[in-house]
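=== RUN LOG ===
request id: a7f3
mode: sequence -> structure
chains: 1
length: 411
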Amino acid sequence: MTSAPDLRGAPEAPGTTTGPWRLRALVLAAYCVNGFSLSAWNVRLPAIADQVGLDAGGLGRFLMANAVGTLITIPLAGRWVQRAGAPRAYAAATVGFVAAYAGLAAALHARSVVGLLAAAVVHGAAFALTNVPQAVLGTESERRVGRTILPQFHAAYSIAAAGGAALGGLAAAVGLGPAPQLLLLAALAALTRGAVSLGLRRDASLHVRAVRIDGPGAAAPPASRSRRGGVWLETPTLLLGTVVFGAALSEGAANNWMAPLAVAELGVDEGRAAMFVSVFLVAQTAGRLVGGLLVDRLGRSATLVTSALVSAFGVVAFTVAPVSWLAWGGAAVWGLGAALAVPVAVSIAAAQGRAAERIAAVTSLSSLANVVGPPLIGSAADLVGLPWAVGAVAVVLGAGAVAGRAARRFA
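=== RESULT ===
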């Protein structure tokens, strides 16, 4: 059995001014405001489309513009964080979010589709420029605390996202238009993210941590491979990227296709079908809240393998369930399996050298899965049926289990 590395007692860098629990609180706040803001305006997509006259195809292009901004920025974000430090990158992302929300509100007021698409690209870029420094800061917080806590940040993101969705729905119910709500989100980003950014910038060690987080024992990447493709083509990145791609594809399949599958195969109405997604999300959040204990007990590689296999079992159980009560169990198992793969893979990536660039490379596979996964499953469903299309995610998760096992020498 492989044990997770003991991080307790790791030496602090000279000049550190932020205690481990204060840094944890700052990173926790960063994850919360990110999840809250994203969900709060995502639930207003129907109102946004209606205000500027977007049909389904137009709404798809709007979402794709956001994804394009994310995919373009992720590799650049890794290099920037590596050179400038996570606090500066996070501060720049804060400016980007304020500009994006204000731009979206202005485009809605002017009923400008072009303006809406441009603001969506800026939002996607700001989202990517947030994810990389957040992950770097999360792994640094984990190092200072001395035990696995990164899954808790992802759990906080999920809980805050649920709160954002609820308040976004409330705004719609009371008749608040999406443009005023986006302006409020711009103000929220300026205040809360600005406060987090100021707190991070007071810690001088965080500005150089991007190149020192790896620790003295981190393996250096082969020079020949670095010249050809940098960290993107190194074995740890490819293995962990496979794990993350499968996990993100699984999570996206649950969020997008679980309810339609329940309606089609179990004959439930839309309200009950949505509850299956809720079960998945509650199980996933619970797994992230307590999963650190499992990681510290089993080890990171074993956790990756277990997560992928449990997710695959949940996918199969849900897709073949002939009755609702079995589907409830499948959804719960699916959510538990989806809880830990991404944060654990990020933790391993951060320990391999050039942490920010490697985190960016690994998380880019997650973004790719989020972009291509839902439409790919939909296209496959037209050919083989929705149960088989969703069930095929288990095969990708199986590949992730193999990759997680192979990554044990890096964990």
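=== NOTES ===
The longest helix spans residues 113-145.
The domain at 224-409 is CATH 1.20.1250.20 (Growth Hormone; Chain: A;).
=== END ===
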